[in-house]
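Lecture notes, unit on protein representations.

Consider one protein chain, 128 amino acids long.
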Amino acid sequence: QVQLVESGGGLVQPGDSLRLSCVASGRTFSRSPMGWFRQAPGKEREFVAAISWSGGYTAYADSVKGRFTISRDNAKKTVYLQMVSLKPEDTAVYYCAGDAGDVGYYYTPLSGHEYDYWGQGTQVTVSS
């Protein structure tokens, strides 16, 4: 059983930065691609970013490319989402997700259906 716990959300102003963290329990983290998704009120969950288990490959939604950076520290079993130049449209609950599948070192799953474990979410609100 793998558990994911997110932290780092909060209320910020447009243009500010935040760093989200997701700590995983369990032994398979180092071989699990990880992703961040978000869900705004009244909207469907959407993909934000993903990182391969090797850490060498990443993928981003067009809406966050150039502003968000996903990274991981396998020794700490933690994945991060650094967010800069935040916009009001980034307001959402952000979820961390893990893929337990046996996949290649380069794989970055983009669909929520490919993930097996989910955190409880952390709220990010961008407002002046």
